[in-house]
Amino acid sequence: MSELLSVRDLSVDFRLSGSTMHAVKSVSFDIKPGETMALVGESGSGKSVTALSILQLLPYPVADHPGGSIRFKGTELVGADEKTLREVRGDRISMIFQEPMTSLNPLHSIEKQINETLFLHKGLTRSAARKRTLELLRLVGLPEAEKRLAAYPHELSGGQRQRVMIAMALANEPDLLIADEPTTALDVTIQAQILELLKDLQRRFGMALLLITHDLGIVRKMADHVCVMNHGEIVEKGTNAALFAGPKHPYTQRLLAAEPKGNPAPPPANAADVMTARDIKVHFPIKKGLLRRTVDYVRAVDGIDVTVREGHTVGVVGESGSGKTTLGLALLRLHASQGAIRFDGKDIQGWQSAKMRPLRREMQVVFQDPYGSLSPRLSVAQIIGEGLKIHGIGSGKEREAMIAKSLEEVGLDPSSRNRYPHEFSGGQRQRIAIARAMVLKPRFVVLDEPTSALDMSVQAQIVDLLRDLQVRHNLAYLFISHDLKVVRALSNDVLVMKDGKVVESGPTRQIFEAPQQAYTRALIAAALNLVAVKTGDVRM
Amino acid sequence: MATSSATASPLPQDRFLGMKITPITRRRLHNFKANRRGFWSLWIFLILFTLSLFAEFIANDKPLLVRYDGNFYAPVFTVYPETTFGGEFETQADYRDPFVQDLINEKGWMVWPPIRYSYRTINYNLSVPAPAPPSTENWLGTDDQGRDVVARLIYGFRISILFGLTLTILSSIVGIAAGAVQGYFGGTTDLLFQRFIEVWSGLPTLYLLIILASVVEPNFWWLLGLLLLFSWMSLVGVVRAEFLRARNFDYVRAARALGAGDALIMFRHVLPNAMVATLTFMPFILNGSITTLTALDFLGFGLPPGSPSLGELLAQGKANLQAPWLGLTAFFTLAIMLSLLIFIGEAVRDAFDPRKTVGPLPGTGSALKPSARPVAKKAAAE
């Protein structure tokens, strides 16, 4: 069979302020009609740049191709004129992007946006385009498609938006669909549905799929051929089965070995309760009418009991919007709530912030986004030392030593303490954030998705670090995550949340091996095996 | 993945004028310098401003130094009666009086500033009725009261800039504080404050000034105070927006989890974000302040009569169209001064623009990642 797309020795350079950055170096691969090719790599490996250069969508002339060719059905795309490219873009080759929130125009209705591609490439009339749009929306499984035609993107959920994006991409029955991290921004159950949809559509239209992802689980399930990218080069390529059975390149081996593994440390016997919360409720009033009367509440957290003991980790899992983060903030008294919160035997619910301050050093938090959680204008030493300063711990010299020690503890070079956050990678920043929490010697730490913004190999390191710190300092963790693999590797007990309520809770092993509730089963199937389970519990 | 950038740890120039600066600051300085027009405007402006600060040594009706009878005298600093130099009156010596000049030159000498007129010195020795056209004695002519235009210009420039700077700094302090409180606490505080500002900004400033002018004699400080009452609102919106945005940042939440108080969080974590917007606005506020004072002087509600001011010069130019040197001088001075400040403002805006990188940064790894995501994050981090 002849190649549909053949990329030969493709290089991409970026010229920025006088220096040249080689983002992609001499990459070659082929895609045959109807097959799925996956480009795998960590952030910064050049996989997205490669995909964008197929459609020549890079910011030229900042970006430049010093060499190489991209031939689509025999037509050269590198350096092709606008007219040729426009005929290919959106018609023969379509693309879907990672962020369904920003890749749809918020000011246009769904119908208008899908119609646009039909007008552009097919020249359909209004009524014909409408019919086709409806057909497409049904095809991608958007519920109540007819009603949704006039809807605007903000009225749809993330998964629905991604379905609309796919419908747009499929409008002209392309020969090649490029999917750039199509499910990264979605919940696990939705992710499984979208992947299944893509596979189904691919079979039906016989189109080729270029899948760009960092998630090896997705690759294993979806791809026929795999290319592993690292630092702008393809370090290994092969068929799915061959690659996963016997990775040859050390980088691939490392990537495959990087999945968070291991089990939580055995908890110490007869450990004391550090944090006990009973019937925690966080309700946001919905106000309506002229007088802004409260008509109803959004029950973000609705009556949750949780107990965290010394040296134990309680994992809180659930999809976005289930109230996990709000629960964590409520326990730390960073968010107003109702219900009893006992920390170390003291009922701290309702304490004034001045009264809370001495306790703050014993309860700490690590946030999800290491880019947002470090003040960009403070040096690392200032960031870590801030808590010490607030609580008046140690003299200047002692503080310096404590900062250095905590940096060492999280695996960073203490001599880097005078640098600024932007000089560090995501994983290093997360280590800084952990050091900021640990330097105060807390007893209770809320970990709010500390690994989900990080690359796979870094995730595993952070999980190991957290486990290590827990054993060393006998810490109590509340570990919030949507990533069940990480939760399994770190938690002793698990709390499954949905819409502010606990669906199921119990020891980790029991939850994972014998889930009682249908929702838990669906969640686990979707997360670990990427299988979409059709139950009423899982939202579309 | 960057090729040209090594790790940027011990940077060659993390000091500027002896102060320790962050890499962000260094990049900003670099961006500022890269805007040549703004950079040169800053220098020209600084030179002019510094010179005008020493106006008494440039344009004065007293000599800088007098040597009389074996002694040195500095009339710029001290008041000497005429009798010191062998005159007849106990009053201050009038050094422009040929009689006094002769007395001094008999037993010594005098060093004069380049312009022998102060802003209120009247040249009685005019060959034509005032306003007199430019001559070798009065380089830009005299105004309709026979006062030297160059001297009035130098003093007027100084008072305009000083007034503008003071008003800008004071209104920025008040504005930032008000915006910070509104944005940080939000909710009812914000609502009430916003409504207050809407009412307050509806008050007619000019009428208040006119009323004031009939009650007291407005001087520099009265005008400053009254204009400050209304000018602080210009920054509130920007600062409030920045605080509203930043108070939900994770690092603010992290600081709260560390036990930091509201004041500390506002000052240390959120204010630096708001300062970017503020500093970008400042040159334009300065311009506005200068123009306001000029306009008031032009209308006659500004500084007390006799004060050197550009607005008053403009008004004279309008009243004496037969003497175009008055209007033209005032116009060009204002135009050049305001343009210089606008150019500086543009360079400041460039300097704080997180997306702008001009030319290679010396000794840093400034290579941005190509994909949209890290760039957006970088922008957010700025």
From TrEMBL, chain A:
SMART domains tied to this protein: AAA
Pfam families: ABC_tran (PF00005), oligo_HPY (PF08352)
Keywords linked to the UniProt accession: ATP-binding, Nucleotide-binding, Transport
Listed GO MF terms: ATP binding; ATP hydrolysis activity
Domain of life of the organism encoding this protein: Bacteria
PROSITE patterns according to UniProt: ABC_TRANSPORTER_1, ABC_TRANSPORTER_2
Location relative to the cell: Cell inner membrane
Coiled-coil region list: none
Domain (ABC transporter): residue spans on this chain: 7-256, 286-524
Gene Ontology terms: cellular component: plasma membrane
Tagged with keyword Glycoprotein: no
GO biological processes: peptide transport; transmembrane transport
Record's bilayer topology term: Peripheral membrane protein
Family of this protein: Belongs to the ABC transporter superfamily.
The protein's name in its UniProt record: ABC transporter ATP-binding protein
UniProtKB/TrEMBL annotation, chain B:
PANTHER family documented for this protein: INNER MEMBRANE ABC TRANSPORTER PERMEASE PROTEIN YEJE (PTHR30325:SF0), MEMBRANE COMPONENT OF ABC TRANSPORTER (PTHR30325)
Keyword Ligase applies: no
Biological process (GO), any one: microcin transport
Similarity section: Belongs to the binding-protein-dependent transport system permease family.
UniProt cross-references to InterPro entries, sorted A to Z: MetI-like (IPR000515), MetI-like_sf (IPR035906)
Domain ABC transmembrane type-1: 157-349
Subcellular location: Cell inner membrane; Cell membrane
Pfam families: BPD_transp_1
Protein name per the record: ABC transporter permease
Keyword Ribonucleoprotein listed: no
Sequence intervals crossing the membrane: 38-59, 161-185, 197-215, 221-239, 276-303, 323-345
Cellular-component GO terms for this entry: plasma membrane
Organism phylogeny: Bacteria, Pseudomonadati, Pseudomonadota, Alphaproteobacteria, Rhodospirillales
Membrane topology annotation: Multi-pass membrane protein
Alphabetic keyword roster: Cell inner membrane, Cell membrane, Membrane, Transmembrane, Transmembrane helix, Transport
Principal localisation: membrane
Disordered: annotated span: 362-382
